[in-house]
Amino acid sequence: VNDRGEESSLEANAVVIATGFTPFDATQRQEYGYKVYDRIYTAYDLEQVIREKGGFKNAFPADVEKIAFVQCVGSRSDNPEQNYCCRVGCMYTVRLASLIREELADAVIDVFYMDLQNFGKGFIDYKNSCVTDKNINFILGRPAKSYYHPIKKKVILKHESTVDGELYEHEYDLLFLAIGSQPGADTASIADVFNIELNEDKFFKNIGSFDPGVTVQKGVFLAGACTGPKDIAAAMQQAKAVSLNVINYLKK
Fold this sequence. Notes:
The chain is α/β, with parallel strands linked by helices. The protein has 5 helices and 13 strands. It has helices spanning about 45-55, 90-105, 125-130, 185-195, 230-250, and strands at about 1-5, 5, 15, 20-25, 40, 65-75, 110-115, 135-150, 155-160, 165-170, 175-180, 180-185, 220. Strand 9 (about 155-160) and strand 10 (about 165-170) form a beta hairpin. Helix 2 (about 90-105) runs parallel beside helix 3 (about 125-130). The mean pLDDT is about 90.
């Protein structure tokens, strides 16, 4: 074990690997201009700053009238290593859009999406209530490019509609990218240490169809999002099942 530069050894009869995931680095999608242009952020940035500043209005300019979210940035892409669903993006985007609506009653809020995944209890009802009760717009199609126009002081967003195939251009005051999740940077090295396998998406491989968290090595178990994208409820459910597996293993 390496703890802040100091190495020590531990003996254990079982190990549970629960290293989680790493948020997708949106700078890899250069077409969206993250960290290149002003007023383009990730939804993760938005969540952090709302928590730190105590609300949307405390964190962003007072002249905000139009806001856009782009779904599936770093997930469900043409890249074979990023073609999986992050399983949380739809829910947290709708939740953040709803939070903004509570503070900005008259702002235009658009959500660009490929399709909406029904992960999480009550999601569809929640999303529908955002459309009917909170006037949040859901636009089918994935934007192709975004950049900041310094003269207009607007974010220009271009997107191709999957309905009619036409290319549209929009202007927004703020743009938020709903990023996906990817394996942690140390996933491969940890797999080497424990001599366990990775799945096709480069997360740790769970080999048990009915026994969650089982690996090819006896006494080495997996829990949470280190095996692939999960929401909090799914991660907790798996962790409970893995805990029982560990207890049963130690009783043998």
